[in-house]
Design goal:
It contains 10 helices and no strands.
Length: 348
């Protein structure tokens, strides 16, 4: 019996030696046959299969675990596949080289379906933010195949030239408006105007909020329109009579006294920064009571206060630089009270 067993094992070893020499996996294949095969047949026996593919440059994960070996190893000479560890080695590039050779930038071994295209696009030179994150790929990638993603320009005008050329209010093309749409339009807005319009260089608030563009941008001038109040409101400034602005010392910067409220009211000029009129004996007086000449901003103290010049000269005879004049009164009494002498220079 032992002799018979010895003969059988010797015969099997002979067969194995013969098969090794004629192995379809190539003469340099060193993996033991029983890693994949059993005595049942030369077909792959999945019950005893123990080859560790994760030790190679191509670990079998996801869908790759389920495919037949021959789909990748068509010749069964495994050494020929050592350099074929790139996606394009087995998969045809349906994108025609428009997104590169690395399929794993977008796809996983689990599925070809891409669920995070927005996040992937953030790694490109054109991140999908705002309204662009909701736009169909084909809106920007217009190619002969829905699978091609030819590289496009990243400037606004590259996609929105038709919008730019068709706009007439205002006319973008003839007025020389910037082709960088984001200078005026908000990337998070669903439309080109209204809340989506960015006029941050000159905020359109209150009375300015409902104006037609042409009110300020005369003759389609959108490149160097002045932001100074007087450039638009010269007529209002010249026609003001209470008080008279024109020819006086009133600033042409309307914001010194006014807000953008319609009708120029309320006036927010703070007279207390110059002379208190919100409290004390001067509270409630009109402009004309002190500013007797409406053509300028000069003021009078001595016309209102019935001081006798001789009495005042005598009272101030010890004050250095005293002069009988309204500016002199203000110089010594800037807060309008008799004991306010913060600016008096007394003799030593």
């Amino acid at each position: 019996m032992r002799i018979l067993s010895f003969i059988i094992w010797s015969f099997l070893l002979y067969l194995i030696g013969t098969v090794s020499e004629e192995s379809p996996h190539g003469k340099d294949f060193k993996v033991s046959c029983n890693t994949c095969h059993s005595a049942n047949s030369w077909e792959l026996d999945k019950k005893i299969y123990s080859f560790d593919h994760s030790a190679t440059k191509m670990p079998l994960i996801g869908q790759h675990k389920e495919i037949n070996c021959k789909l990748c190893h068509q010749s069964l000479i495994f050494s020929e596949a050592k350099s074929k560890n790139q996606c394009v080695s087995c998969h045809s590039d349906i994108h025609s080289q428009t997104v590169g050779n690395n399929c794993d930038k977008c796809h996983t071994p689990e599925s070809w379906i891409v669920n995070n295209i927005t996040e992937i696009h953030h790694q490109s030179r054109f991140p999908l933010i705002g309204v662009h994150s909701m736009t169909d790929c084909q809106k920007c990638h217009k190619s002969e195949s829905l699978h091609r993603y030819d590289v496009l320009g990243v400037e606004c005008i590259d996609c929105h030239k038709e919008n730019y050329m068709a706009t007439t209010n205002p006319n973008h093309a003839t007025s020389g408006m910037s082709t960088e749409c984001s200078q005026c339009h908000n990337i998070y807005s669903l439309n080109w105007g209204g809340a989506g319009f960015n006029h941050s260089r000159f905020p359109l608030t209150l009375g300015h909020s409902n104006l037609q563009c042409s009110k300020c941008h005369v003759n389609n001038n959108y490149s160097n329109t002045s932001s100074e109040c007087y450039s638009c409101h010269q007529a209002n400034y010249n026609s003001a009579t209470n008080p008279v602005h024109s020819g006086g010392c009133y600033s042409k910067n309307c914001t010194v006294c006014h807000t953008t409220n319609p009708g120029w009211r309320p006036v927010n000029f703070n007279h207390n920064n110059f002379f208190p009129i919100s409290s004390g004996k001067h509270a409630g007086i009109s402009c004309a009571e002190c500013h007797t000449n409406p053509a300028n901003c000069s003021f009078s103290c001595i016309d209102c206060h019935e001081h006798n010049k001789a009495d005042m000269d005598n009272e101030h005879d010890d004050e250095n630089g005293y002069i009988w004049s309204s500016p002199s009164c203000y110089n010594c009494h800037p807060r309008g009270t008799a004991d306010d002498k913060s600016k008096i220079i007394r003799r030593k």
